Amino acid sequence: MNEWYQKSEAEILKELHTQKEGLSSEKASELLKEKGENILEEGRKKSTVEVFAEQFKDLLVVILMAAAVISMLSGNVESTIVIMAVIILNAVLGTVQHEKAQKSLASLKSLSSPNAKVMRDGKKTEVSSREVVPGDILILEAGDMVVADGRILNNYSLQVNESSLTGESTNVDKEDGILEISVPLADRTNMVYSGSLVTYGRAVVVVTDTGMKTEIGKIASLMNATKEKKTPLQVSLDQFSSHLATVIMAICGVVFLLSLYRKMPLLDSMMFAVALAVAAIPEALSSIVTIVQAMGTQRMAKENAIIKELKAVESLGCVSVICSDKTGTLTLNKMTVQEIYLDNQIYKPEELTLTNQLHRYLLYDAVLTNDSTISDGKGIGDPTEYALLEMAGKISVSHSTIRDLMHRLEEIPFDSGRKLMSTKYKLHGVPTILTKGAVDVLLDRTVSIRTSQGIRELTEADKEDILKQNMMFSENGLRVLAFGYKEVEESHVLSLHSENNFIFLGLISMVDPPREESKAAVADAKTAGIRPVMITGDHKITATAIAKQIGIFEEGDIAVTGAELDAMTNQELDEKIVNISVYARVSPENKIRIVDAWQRRGNIVSMTGDGVNDAPALKKADIGVAMGITGTEVSKDAASMILSDDNFATIIKAVANGRNVYRNIKNAIQFLLSGNMAGIFSVLYTSIMALPIPFAPVHLLFINLLTDSLPAIAIGMEPAEHGLLSQKPRDPKERILTKEFMTKVMIQGSLIAVSTMTAFHFGLRQSGEASASTMAFATLTLARLFHGFNCRSRHSIFRLGFKGNWYSLGSFVFGFALLSLVLFVPVMEKLFSVTSLTGSQIGIVYGLSIIPTAIIQLSKVIRDIGK
């Protein structure tokens, strides 16, 4: 079945039951009821209540809630209140951080123009874009937003900017003929698409599709079908929580049975188990991870990377593939004249001079056969044309001055069929036709060539030289325009027949040049073990040339088009994908397929983009990166990170920050778990040895939520270490609880537990259970505060110092002050279940607390010296 662009005008009008005079009002109303409004459907979003309820699904939260119920049954109201406060606080934080609401469709809807000019009842009228239906005859003029997909019936030099759909930065010349072969969306020159902008000319269009059946509607459907993936840290934390909960329940069950075996009352036995559960569960972990990620987002924002989703911060650390759009990200998104071919020589724009008549005539042609302008430093019109005006500015010539001196007498606008634009002026008092256009077209209409020696006949050798130079420019990704002129009689009227017998002037090549920092950023990415891939709507030759310049495309790499990608099976793509560095002329479906193929290989993929066409792939990728300057609202809403400077180099900085955030989160988890292991070992020891409970639940909650939280946050503020980018990306399948990690946690937890139980025995022998519990609580708290210094880095505190992270020292001082408040202020004794200690007992607590840190730091010093 043929597509709309492959059908004749008569076939389309017949199939849509319409005519060139437009629909009747009655028929339009019927179609509106049948087809629905020209809007995009919006998916259901979760309510705030649903999001809040989901926060209680975690198994660790369920265990804490059970602990709160047991505390309440045992009459320990304070512990119950504290535990429930912790649970609710975490749920509120999780709800506040919930950013999965689908805003993308709302932004897609906003792309539609509020009104459209259509033919109804044989008259031109304006209607709301919502009321446009298939079969409507749409009138498009420069400045209009296209409100529906349509086939062009009559074309008058129409140019449309479709960059938000296709990714191609230059305006597209439209035509009104039939395209007999199947072509990608970017090459359907007889169609216009919803969401694109008319930049030049006008056209009469028959509407073929509206609403969700438009190309934008298909993208909206893709976005609805694309599910967000959990980040590697989320997966790892989920596994950690599941394993920890299982271990906690098993140990609590054993402790509970041991207590009953020792003839302990049921409620006391349950409280013993509760104490163990509270000691084991890192209550503040989710909040700490959120805070550390938030700190990371602030650092990234200062470097022009705005993180929308906190979870994206750590995912950046294990990105192994970056699929980057070319236009505006790797390039400047601004056409710039590169080289000029005149008289068989190559010139830079600044090398031209007005004193040379050949140079002057080329300059006249470039400025006068041109409908663009520059106002307040901003180009208005076709990017290719105002690049020519900027070229003139490089030789201190104002285009407005030239235009003020010479007035356009006649013109033939650019036409995609002719591929030429011609104007008539008086140059030095002589009527002259100036023409610019495609090289091959203009050469076929040229009979002479102007050189520094004058005008002579254009020979076949001249043509070969010109075409050879044109090929060299094209192979380097440059867009080339040819310029010619001829002098005519005063009475000559400019017409299509005038476009022949030209005198050839020269070629001007231009390109959207790579950013200066792109090459270094690509090199940094490769050093960091990250594979950069270019995905663009531009032509294959242009894309490959730019990719070579910045280092993405190397010897042995492959460049493919969207059509070539469509012809590949998934198996073929999987085999070739590691060698494909450039994808050109791609569709939104192509982009999702590329991202999916890399993800099938186990890679964490970052995708950059700025247009509507990029949105589904941005959402599909592990890290979607939108452009802050040129990006559409749709792409920004679909992405998890926005570059406020549209710069590829910023992504690499963000990756370094992401790696550091993950390292800090892992160190913070090590700090929390090793401290909690000390509590678990202590409770298990007293249970096995038939000793009294060493801690009340409120003791452990005080440590976990107050004195432990600030050191953990301080660890999250640790600056990046040198050489972070020289490391390979973290394996996303790597669990937090590796053998090495858990060994470290167990050893450090054991050291703190030994000091804690030593203090407990001192108190038990000297003053009884109350003093023993207080000494154990104080020792465990202070030892964990000291332990915060151990977990900042793999290096010793003597090598790190405090200048890079004053927060670690501040958190220790604050935690020590809180502990002192509980121990030495009488009113706190009942609230926190402590008793007064003697001076010697305080001294024992302080001495025992610092021993674990002294041992750990000594081992680090020895290791640092060894390296």
Topology:
Blueprint: H1 9-15, H2 25-35, H3 48-54, H4 59-73, H5 77-96, H6 104-110, E1 115-120, E2 123-128, E3 137-141, E4 149-161, H7 163-166, E5 172-173, E6 191-192, E7 197-209, H8 215-225, H9 232-261, H10 266-280, H11 285-302, E8 305-307, H12 311-315, E9 321-324, H13 326-330, E10 336-342, E11 345-347, H14 357-368, E12 373-375, E13 378-380, H15 383-393, H16 399-405, E14 410-415, E15 420-427, E16 430-437, H17 439-444, E17 446-451, E18 454-457, H18 460-475, E19 479-487, E20 502-511, H19 518-527, E21 531-535, H20 540-550, E22 558-561, H21 562-567, H22 570-576, E23 580-584, H23 588-600, E24 605-609, H24 615-620, E25 623-627, H25 633-638, E26 641-643, H26 648-688, H27 697-707, H28 709-716, H29 739-766, H30 769-790, H31 797-800, H32 806-824, H33 828-831, H34 839-866
Parallel strand pairs: 9-21, 9-24, 17-20, 21-23, 22-23, 24-25, 25-26
Antiparallel strand pairs: 1-2, 1-3, 3-7, 4-5, 4-6, 4-7, 8-26, 10-11, 10-20, 12-13, 14-15, 15-16, 16-19, 17-18, 19-20
